[in-house]
Structures are given as structure tokens and as C-alpha cells.
């Protein structure tokens, strides 16, 4: 298929309809297209007949399609035919790192969190023998679904014809440059990149982040230097791979959605961006009526003085009476006990301290659960129990919030190892709104044996699923019956799960 024959409206593989030409360079054209079967937007690369690296690009895309880390762009299809060749991948919406720093450097912890996520994702790609080699601010995206996405692993290098003898070191340096950009708003290169100006220099070397931006923590300055500024290392060893960069940033907070705790009297706030999924207005508490002070009408100074003295006398008598009653009560209590604290009788009700607080009980296992027995995405299920807010599990991608009308729900099944009483389950979901979640408990890992104990609509962020009545069972299911929108599709995400059981006194 010649370049002139590939126009808006062209259908590839009787499925992907090209809509908008996004960019074109050196015989490769990027399109926004529609997958007509799944009714979702996709990104499609097509190639002119004289594009020299079609085989390399298609081969790289097929290899990248086997990557399962959700932080890496998903490749859906790739074909190399005599008439035409193409690569179909995920259409990602959100803000690139260049967009995020357009107004100035990011908060240091946020910049580090974004790059830490990218480093972990690339470490997974390297384990599969795939590399990026051309990391730029446009390749790191904070999506509209509040997740990190790294674009173009393997494919972009093939498109550009990039090769290297040290891919791990090159990608570690690329991550260091992204961290530098996030911390300073500059690009550590000789020319501007993605709208970012070149980093300032001193004595022929790039300035370190702390020399450019005030307030950068020293440890982040050191990580950046070790990753991409060899002239400034001064004895520091280099970070030689994405895995080493990820380890160096393992302790930073991750950019995950967290519910906002508003102060007791917040101002009226209305969301300004529909893409954030916040369309409601937060109103301050209704003001309380003013306190009505008791006043005594006065009929001249003499009469007022008499009334005031009378009121004072009554108040004094009341205070004396109250003190007397209190003393009599205390004395009676002491007399009853005869000086023995244990002789005060049996209380009529248990004191609050007699009931222990609910205890966290760690499940033995977590797996993806699908009522139809389909192979629902299971990778990452165990990560919901690791106590790390940066790791997560998510369902397969669906075409509608109702799971494409294919099934009534999907979820994460927890095996507690033995029957336990459930006080509540605290689950950290994505910040995307629109999820409907049920909590089911039972003694067998079958949908018919699991009883719904509570439901929550519009769930997002950290949610507490508390049974409406006492619930006991070996299996606990967090069950999505409706999925939030994310990156052109619909899927549920769970970062962390904590199960609480009533403690014993």
C-alpha cells in the first residue's frame, strides 16, 4: 500500500480505521485510529514502500507485545505484508513530562516518583531483553487515569534505527535525564528537547539539579549525578541499569491517587478539569445559628442591682449543693468498696476498653477471579498484598464500563487460609471515578458460594468495604460490577488491600 493510498478512512486488517494523521517522518506515519471491533481509539504506524526498517519495527513491536507491565505501552497488532505493513498500539492520553514541567520544575518527590515508576517498568522490559534507547520527556506520560506510562519501548529505537552495545547504561542515563528535567525544568543536552531549554553549564559541565533549583534534596541530586552526569560524580559510582535507578529511588513516594482530606471548613471548590473525574462541588459546612445570650431587662440601676445580687446568691447556693452531692457520691463509692478496688461490683456493661481494636489479617493468596473461567489478567494480583503503594493489579481492558456486556463482573479473590470474621476490607483503587464494587465473603472460591455483604458505587481512591452484617468465610472477593474509564478503555485497578478481623479482648 503506497503512502498516497493511506488516507483518513482507510481500514487496516478490516478492523482499524485511520482517522487523524498525528505526525510523519522519514516514511513512517503515526495515526489516531479506531478499533471498530472493540470501539476504542488506537495508535497506528504505517510505512511508505521505501521505509528501510519495516522488518525491524514489526519485529520489535511483536516482541514488545509480550510485555505485561501496565506502565509500558501495550502493542495490539503488527503486520509485515507485501502490500502494507503496520503496528497498532495503545492510544495514551495524558500529560507528558514536558507538559508537566512547562510551568516550572515539579515538586522533587513527585518528579522522583514518576521516574521511579518508569525505572521499574523499564527494568521489567530489560528482563525480557527489550530496551528503549531514546528516552525523552515525551515518552513519560502521567495519564488521565492517574498512572505512569512509558511510551515506545523497543519500537521507537527501531523506528529511528538506534542500536547500542550498552543498552542498560543508555537507558539508565535516559532515566537520569528525565529526573533532571523533572527537578529543574531543563534538559541536560546541548539543545532544547520537547520545549525544555538546555541545562545551564559551569566550567564546561552541566550544573547539578541543586545548582539549578533551590530545594532539591541532596539524595535526589546524587541519584541524578550518578545516572547521567559523569563529570560531576566525584567518586560516586554510576547507576548502570534501570534496575539500579529503580533501587536508588525505591524509597520515594509514588504518584498515586490519594483521597483528599478537607479541613473542617473548606472554601467552596469546583473541579476545573472534567478529565480529572471530579465534577461535584465541595461546600463548606452550614453555619450554625449565633448563640443567644440571656439578658435581664433593667428598670433602673437600683432594680438591676437587686436582681443581680439575687442571681449571684442563687448561683452560689447551686454550686455549694453540687459540691455537696459530689462529695457524698464519692464517699459512698469508697465506702462500698471498703478500700478494695476489686470490690466495686460487676459492671452492667462491658467497658469500651474490653473490646480490642480490629486486627489486620494478611491473606494467604490473591488471584484474579473471572466467573466465566476466562484468563483474566492475573499478573500483579499478589502485589496488592505487598504493602507497597506503587505496585498494583488491574483487570483486563474492556470496551464499556459494563465489561463489554460479556460478564456480570470480575474481581480479586483473597484466600485467607481459614475461615475468619471480616470487620472490613480497605482497598486502594485508582482515582478514576465510575467504579462499582461489591464485597463478597464465603467458604468456597465459587461465585455461587460467595455472599455479597456490602456494595459501593462511585468508588475511587481508598475505600473501606464494611459488611452490613457479621460476615465470616475463608474467601473474600473484591468484585467490580462496573469499571472506570482509563486510557481509551475500561478496567479496574487495585493498589493495596488490607483485611481486618475483630481482635480478641
- The percent of residues in helical segments reads 10-25%
What overall form do the CA principal axes indicate? globular
What does the largest sheet look like?
Answer: 6 strands, antiparallel
- Please write the CATH class name of the largest domain: Mainly Alpha
The span between the termini is 75 Å
Keywords: Kinase, Membrane, Serine/threonine-protein kinase, Transferase, Transmembrane, Transmembrane helix
Biased composition (Low complexity): 343-360
GO molecular function: protein serine/threonine kinase activity
Transmembrane segments: 310-330
Which features would summarize this protein structure in a list?
505 residues, alpha+beta, Phosphorylase Kinase, domain 1, Transferase(Phosphotransferase), domain 1, Jelly Rolls, 3 domains, six-stranded antiparallel beta sheet, five-stranded antiparallel beta sheet, 9 helices, globular, transferase, Galactose-bd-like_sf, kinase, membrane, Kinase-like_dom_sf
In short:
With 505 residues, the protein is of the alpha+beta class. It is built from 9 helices and 25 strands.
Amino acid at each position: 500500500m503506497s503512502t498516497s493510498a493511506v488516507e483518513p478512512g482507510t481500514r487496516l486488517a478490516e478492523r482499524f480505521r485511520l482517522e487523524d494523521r498525528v505526525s510523519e517522518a522519514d516514511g513512517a506515519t503515526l495515526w489516531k485510529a479506531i478499533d471498530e471491533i472493540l470501539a476504542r481509539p488506537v495508535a497506528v504506524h504505517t510505512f511508505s514502500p521505501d521505509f528501510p526498517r519495516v522488518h525491524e519495527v514489526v519485529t520489535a513491536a511483536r516482541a514488545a507485545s509480550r510485555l505485561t507491565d501496565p506502565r509500558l505501552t501495550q502493542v495490539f497488532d503488527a503486520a509485515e505484508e507485501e502490500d502494507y505493513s503496520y503496528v497498532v498500539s495503545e492510544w495514551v492520553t495524558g500529560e507528558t513530562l514536558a507538559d508537566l514541567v512547562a510551568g516550572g520544575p515539579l515538586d522533587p518527590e513527585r518528579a522522583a516518583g514518576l521516574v521511579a515508576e518508569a525505572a521499574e517498568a523499564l527494568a521489567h522490559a530489560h528482563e525480557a531483553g527489550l530496551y528503549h534507547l531514546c528516552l525523552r520527556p515525551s515518552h513519560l506520560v502521567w495519564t488521565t487515569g492517574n498512572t505512569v506510562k512509558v511510551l515506545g519501548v523497543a519500537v521507537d529505537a527501531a523506528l529511528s534505527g538506534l542500536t547500542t552495545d550498552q543498552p542498560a547504561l543508555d537507558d539508565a542515563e535516559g532515566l537520569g535525564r528525565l529526573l533532571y528535567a523533572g527537578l529543574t525544568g531543563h534538559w541536560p543536552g546541548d539543545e532544547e528537547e520537547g520545549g525544555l531549554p538546555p541545562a545551564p553549564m559551569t566550567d564546561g559541565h552541566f550544573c547539578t539539579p541543586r545548582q539549578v533549583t533551590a530545594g532539591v534534596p541532596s539524595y535526589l541530586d546524587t541519584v541524578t549525578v550518578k545516572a547521567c552526569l559523569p563529570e560531576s560524580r566525584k567518586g560516586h559510582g554510576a547507576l548502570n541499569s534501570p534496575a539500579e535507578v529503580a533501587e536508588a529511588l525505591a524509597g520515594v513516594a509514588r504518584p498515586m491517587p490519594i483521597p483528599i482530606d478537607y479541613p473542617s471548613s473548606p472554601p467552596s471548590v469546583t473541579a476545573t478539569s472534567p478529565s480529572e473525574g471530579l465534577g461535584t462541588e465541595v461546600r463548606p459546612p452550614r453555619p450554625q445559628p449565633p448563640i443567644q445570650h440571656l439578658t435581664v431587662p433593667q428598670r433602673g440601676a437600683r432594680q438591676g442591682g437587686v436582681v443581680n445580687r439575687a442571681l449571684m446568691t442563687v448561683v452560689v447556693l447551686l454550686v455549694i449543693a453540687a459540691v455537696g452531692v459530689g462529695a457524698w457520691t464519692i464517699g459512698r463509692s469508697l465506702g462500698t468498696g471498703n478500700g478494695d478496688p476489686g470490690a466495686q461490683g460487676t459492671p452492667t456493661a462491658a467497658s469500651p476498653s474490653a473490646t480490642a481494636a480490629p486486627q489486620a489479617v494478611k491473606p494467604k493468596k490473591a488471584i484474579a477471579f473471572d466467573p466465566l473461567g476466562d484468563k483474566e489478567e492475573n499478573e500483579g494480583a499478589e502485589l496488592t498484598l505487598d504493602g507497597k503503594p506503587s505496585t498494583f493489579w488491574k483487570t483486563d481492558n474492556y470496551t464499556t464500563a459494563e465489561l463489554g456486556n460479556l460478564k456480570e463482573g470480575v474481581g480479586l479473590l483473597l484466600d485467607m487460609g481459614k475461615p475468619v470474621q471480616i470487620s472490613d476490607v480497605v482497598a486502594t483503587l485508582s482515582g478514576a471515578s465510575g467504579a462499582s464494587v461489591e464485597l463478597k465473603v464465603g467458604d468456597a472460591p465459587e461465585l455461587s458460594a460467595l455472599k455479597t455483604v456490602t456494595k459501593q458505587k462511585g468508588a475511587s481512591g481508598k475505600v473501606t468495604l464494611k459488611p452490613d452484617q457479621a460476615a465470616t468465610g475463608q474467601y473474600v472477593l473484591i468484585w467490580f460490577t462496573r469499571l472506570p474509564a482509563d486510557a481509551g478503555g475500561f478496567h479496574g485497578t487495585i493498589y493495596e488491600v488490607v483485611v481486618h478481623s475483630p481482635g480478641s479482648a
